[in-house]
C-alpha cells in the first residue's frame, strides 16, 4: 500500500524533529502502523532553510496553503503556532477533508470548540498529543488509558521553562531575575518569556487536560493564571524548611460545586514524586476514583520529544482514517453529544491550604493579633515558623518573618483575612501568599 | 444501542473491582465509549459468594464455559489466573469468536504466541493492559504512545510485594525474613510468596513489555530471573552511603548483539525518580530514541486499579470490535508479519556495572590482591568503600567489609573475576554481587 502522505505546515524545531524521526525510524514505524508514513511536503517562508534539511526527500513550499490544496496529502500537521493564521489553516485543512495533527495548545485552548465541531462535521480527526507535555503520552493516557475512572483531579508541571527556573532558584539560592537571564542564555527561556513565566502556556495545556478529564468544553478564559515572577528565593527556602517544594502547577479538580482550573506557584510535600521533578522536565499527576494516583513524566518540549508525540498521532490516524466516527476516540474524550456543562469555579470558591509570609515588627503580641484574625475567620493553622529577628534582618534588626501554614479554607475567606492582617500596623510589607496542595 | 455484553470468568478481587467500577461509573464510561458496557454474566465456583456481590444485576454461573457458550456475550474477561484452565478457556473463547481481556501475565508470557496467533486467525482482540503494572496504562503507552521511537530500554518496578519489602528493609533496617512476615500479615504478600519474591511475576510482566517494545515474540523461558531473598539489609545500607537505592528491577534493553531480558535486584542512583518509588507502588521507565526518558507510575495491583485497566481494554474493544484488522492496534504492537527474531542475550553477554561486597580479613595487602584480580580482568573500579574493622565486627574484630563499585563489564568476565577473588584465603565469606544501572 502507498505510504500515507503527510504535509508539515511550519518547519521549525518541531517540524524538523518530526521529519528526522520519521526518516530515521521509518522501518520501525511501518512495522507498527502496517503502512508507511511519509512527509511529502513541508512549508516554510524561508524555503532555503527547509530545503537544507529535507533535500530531495520532500517538496518545499513557501505557502502552507499549497499543502492543503494538494489532493495527495492525507494529513496536515500544523506547527506554525499562534492564533490567526494557524486557525485559518486548520479550518481550511478540515474543510478540504484533511486530518489534522497540531502541537498548538494556544489555538485549541481558545478555539478548540469551533475547531473540533468543524472536524466532527467533516468527519476528520484533529489530534493534539504534542500540545500537552511534549513527548509524554498524557492525552492518550487520559482519553483512553483511564476511561474507567471518574477523574478527580490533575496536577501537572507542564512548563519546562518555569520548572527549570524554580529548580535553579532552589539549588543555587538565586533570585528569579538572575535565573531567568541564565535560562535565556542556555536556551531554556525565550527572548520574550512572558507566556512561560506568567503561566499562560501552562494554562493552555491545563485547559485541554481539564476538558478531556471532565468532559467539559475548553474554557481558557475561565482559568485563574499566576506565574512565577513574584516568587522570592526566601519563600523557596522557608518552604524547604517546612518539608515542601514550590512548583508552578496547573491544577484542575472536580468538586461538587464546579471545576477548579488554576495555574499558580504551589507548595507540595517534598516527599511526593512530582516534587522531585527537576530542571526542564514535565510531569502530570492524575487521580482517578478507580486507579488512584498515577504519574506521567518526561521531556515536555524539544524537537524530537515533541516530534515523538506528533508521530504517535500520525500512526493513530493512519490506523483509523478509514474508520467511522464510533470507532474513533472522540476529540475531547467524551462523545460530543455527552459533554457536561459543569461550570468552572470562580477563584474565590476554590478551597485549598496556604503558606503565608508576613514581614512583621519583632515585638510582643504580633503573633497573637495575626492568629486572632485567622481564628476569627475560621481558618485553622497547621504550622507556624517564627524566625529570630537577627536571622532575617541581621544583628539588631527589629523585623522578622512570620511563616504560617494553614489548613483548607475558601480563597475568598483567605483574601478577606489577608486584607485584615495587611492593615495591622505591625505588618510591615505586602503579605506573601502561596497556595499549598498535599496531592495525596 | 444495546450495551456491549461482558462475561467475567473468575470473580475474585479483580473481578469484583471490574464489576463495581462499571456499576459506579457506568454513565461516565458510556459518555466516553458512546455505548454502554454491561457485565451480564460472572462465573465463580462458589456461586453464593459471587451472588452476594452482583445481586440480580448479572447471572452467576459456576462453570466459566457457560459464558463462552452464551451467544449474547461479546467480550469475555479471563480473571482465573494460572496456566492450564485459563489457557483452555481463552482459546475456547477465541474459537467462539469472543474478544478476550485478561490480566493473566503468566499465561501470556508463556503461551502468548499461540494465543495471539489464534486470535488473529479468528479476527478477535486479546487485550492485556491489566497484566502489567495494574492500573498504569503502560501497555497503551508502549504500543500506541511511543510508536515513533526505537525503544532503547525499559526498567521497571513491576512487583509491588517486593518493592514494599525493600522499602521496609531500608526504612527500618530490618532483614528480609522479618519484613516478609510483616508483609504477609498486612496482605502485601501472599501465604506462598514464591512468585513475587523470586522475581517470577516481574519476569512475566517484563516479558510482555519486551515483546511490545522490540517487536519480538514473548520469550519467558529466556529471561534471567533473580529475586530478593538473598538481599541483606547491610547491602541496602552500604548502597545508601554510596548514593544508591536497591530495587528489584525488570530490565529489557536493545543492544547490537541482542535483547537483554533480566529481573534482579539492582543499585540505582538515589536521585532518579524511580529510586523514590516506595511501598507497593509500581513505576516503569521507558527510554526511546526520540522521546528520551519517560516514566509511568501508579498502583500495580489491587481490585479497582487493576479493574481500571480491564475496563480501559473493554472500552477500546467496544470502539473497535467492528473494525477490520488494519484499524486495530496489533496485539504485540508490531504487525504479526513484521516481528523480529533478534535473540535474547545469554546473561554472560550482558554488560552492566556492579556492586561487590567482600568479607575479608583485616590485614595488609587484601585490597591490593582483590583490585589486582579486577585489573587483570580488565574491569575498572568506580569507587571503593573500606570499613574500619571494628565498625563491622565490633571491638577487636579482625574482619571487615570491602565494598567495590565497578564500571561496565560483561557478566561472564565478572563471573570469572568473582571466582578468582572467592578463592583468595583472605576472602572469608561468599562474595555478594549486585548489578548496578545508572538509568540515565
TrEMBL record, chains A, B:
Single GO MF descriptor: homoserine dehydrogenase activity
Active-site residues per Swiss-Prot or TrEMBL entry: 205 (proton donor)
Q: Which positions does UniProt annotate for NADP(+) binding?
A: 9-16
Q: What is its EC number?
A: 1.1.1.3
Q: What protein name does the entry list? A: Homoserine dehydrogenase
One GO BP? methionine biosynthetic process
Q: Which InterPro entries match?
A: ACT-like_dom_sf (IPR045865), ACT_dom (IPR002912), Asp/hSer_DH_NAD-bd (IPR005106), HDH (IPR016204), HDH_cat (IPR001342), HDH_CS (IPR019811), NAD(P)-bd_dom_sf (IPR036291)
NCBIfam families with a match to the protein in the record: PRK06349.1
Pathway(s) the chain acts in: Amino-acid biosynthesis; L-methionine biosynthesis via de novo pathway; L-homoserine from L-aspartate: step 3/3; Amino-acid biosynthesis; L-threonine biosynthesis; L-threonine from L-aspartate: step 3/5
Record's family?
Belongs to the homoserine dehydrogenase family.
**Domain ACT intervals:** 355-436
Residues annotated as binding NADPH: 105
Residues engaged in binding L-homoserine: 190
Keywords tagged on the record: Amino-acid biosynthesis, Methionine biosynthesis, NADP, Oxidoreductase, Threonine biosynthesis
Amino acid at each position: 500500500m502507498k505510504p500515507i502522505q503527510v504535509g508539515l505546515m511550519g518547519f521549525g524545531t518541531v517540524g524538523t524533529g518530526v521529519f528526522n524521526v520519521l526518516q530515521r525510524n521509518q522501518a520501525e514505524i511501518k512495522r507498527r502502523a502496517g503502512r508507511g508514513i511519509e512527509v511529502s511536503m513541508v512549508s516554510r517562508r524561508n524555503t532555503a532553510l527547509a530545503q537544507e534539511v529535507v533535500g530531495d526527500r520532500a517538496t518545499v513550499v513557501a505557502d502552507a496553503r499549497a499543502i492543503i490544496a494538494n489532493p495527495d496529502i492525507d494529513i496536515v500537521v500544523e506547527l506554525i503556532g499562534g492564533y490567526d493564521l494557524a486557525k485559518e489553516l486548520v479550518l481550511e485543512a478540515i474543510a478540504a477533508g484533511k486530518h489534522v495533527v497540531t502541537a498548538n495548545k494556544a489555538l485549541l485552548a481558545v478555539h478548540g470548540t469551533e475547531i473540533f465541531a468543524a472536524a466532527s462535521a467533516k468527519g476528520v480527526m484533529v489530534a493534539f498529543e504534542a500540545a500537552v507535555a511534549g513527548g509524554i503520552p498524557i492525552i492518550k493516557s487520559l482519553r483512553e488509558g483511564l476511561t474507567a475512572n471518574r477523574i478527580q483531579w490533575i496536577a501537572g508541571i507542564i512548563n519546562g521553562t518555569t520548572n527549570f527556573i524554580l529548580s535553579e532558584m532552589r539549588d543555587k539560592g538565586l533570585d528569579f531575575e538572575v535565573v531567568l537571564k541564565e535560562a535565556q542564555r542556555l536556551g531554556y527561556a525565550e527572548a520574550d518569556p512572558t507566556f512561560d513565566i506568567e503561566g499562560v502556556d501552562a494554562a493552555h495545556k491545563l485547559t485541554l487536560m481539564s476538558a478531556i478529564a471532565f468532559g467539559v468544553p475548553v474554557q481558557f478564559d475561565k482559568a485563574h493564571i499566576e506565574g512565577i515572577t513574584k516568587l522570592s528565593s526566601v519563600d523557596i527556602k522557608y518552604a524547604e524548611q517546612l518539608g515542601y517544594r514550590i512548583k508552578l502547577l496547573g491544577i484542575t479538580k472536580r468538586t461538587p460545586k464546579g471545576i477548579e482550573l488554576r495555574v499558580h506557584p504551589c507548595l507540595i510535600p517534598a516527599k511526593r514524586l512530582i516534587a522531585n521533578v527537576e530542571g526542564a522536565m514535565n510531569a502530570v499527576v492524575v487521580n482517578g476514583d478507580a486507579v488512584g494516583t498515577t504519574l506521567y513524566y518526561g521531556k515536555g518540549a524539544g524537537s524530537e520529544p515533541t516530534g515523538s508525540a506528533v508521530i504517535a498521532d500520525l500512526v493513530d490516524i493512519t490506523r483509523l482514517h478509514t474508520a467511522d466516527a464510533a470507532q474513533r476516540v472522540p476529540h475531547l474524550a467524551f462523545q460530543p453529544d455527552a459533554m457536561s456543562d459543569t461550570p468552572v469555579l470562580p477563584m474565590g470558591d476554590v478551597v485549598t491550604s496556604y503558606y503565608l509570609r508576613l514581614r512583621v515588627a519583632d515585638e510582643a503580641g504580633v503573633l497573637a493579633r495575626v492568629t486572632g484574625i485567622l481564628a476569627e475567620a475560621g481558618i485553622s493553622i497547621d504550622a507556624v515558623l517564627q524566625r529570630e529577628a537577627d536571622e532575617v534582618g541581621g544583628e539588631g534588626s527589629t523585623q522578622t518573618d512570620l511563616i504560617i501554614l494553614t489548613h483548607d479554607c475558601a480563597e475568598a475567606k483567605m483574601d478577606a483575612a489577608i486584607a485584615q492582617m495587611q492593615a495591622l500596623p505591625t505588618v510591615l510589607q505586602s503579605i506573601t501568599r502561596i497556595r499549598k496542595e498535599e496531592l495525596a
